[in-house]
Write a structure and sequence with these properties.
Layout: H1 2-29, H2 33-46, H3 51-63, H4 67-80, H5 85-97, H6 101-114, H7 119-127
Helix pairs in contact: 1-2, 2-3, 3-4, 4-5, 5-6
Length: 134
C-alpha cells in the first residue's frame, strides 16, 4: 500500500515541479525577474538540487549586481556539477566584481583545466591586476 501512495505523491510532486519550471521559463522570457525569484525559490523548496533553477537564480542575482548572493547559488551548482565552465566563469566574474581577485584566479585555473581555450577566461585574466593577493 505504501508504494501506491508513495507513487501518487511522487507524481503530484513531479507534475507540480514541471508546472513551476514551465512558469519559470515563461517569466524569464518575459523578463519578470522578481517573479522569477519567487517561483525559483518555491521550486527549490521542493527540489533543492535543481541545477537549472540554481543557475537561473544565480544568474539573476549576477545581473542585479548582487554578487555575493550569486556566488552562493553558483557554489550550490558546483557542489553537484563541479566542472561546469559556464558557472565557474560567472563565479569568477562575480569574485572579480567584488575585488576578490585571488578567488577569481582560482576559478579561472579550474576553467583552464576543463576548457583551455575558453575565451571568457582569457578576457577576465587580462582584467585582473597583476600581483593581486586578496
Amino acid at each position: 500500500m505504501v508504494g501506491i501512495f508513495g507513487k501518487s505523491f511522487k507524481n503530484e510532486k513531479t507534475n507540480y515541479l514541471r508546472s513551476k519550471k514551465s512558469e519559470l521559463k515563461k517569466l524569464v522570457k518575459e523578463k519578470k525577474y522578481d517573479s522569477v525569484l519567487k517561483v525559483g525559490l518555491e521550486i527549490l523548496e521542493k527540489n533543492p538540487h535543481d541545477l537549472d533553477v540554481l543557475f537561473v537564480l544565480g544568474g539573476l542575482h549576477y545581473m542585479k549586481r548582487k554578487f555575493l548572493k550569486a556566488i552562493s547559488f553558483f557554489d550550490k551548482v558546483l557542489e553537484i556539477s563541479e566542472f561546469d565552465p559556464e558557472v565557474l566563469l560567472l563565479k569568477a566574474n562575480s569574485h572579480y566584481k567584488l575585488g576578490q581577485y585571488k578567488k577569481s584566479l582560482i576559478c579561472c585555473e579550474k576553467i583552464k583545466e576543463i576548457d583551455p581555450k575558453n575565451k571568457g577566461v582569457s578576457i577576465l585574466l587580462a582584467k585582473i591586476p597583476k600581483n593581486s593577493v586578496n
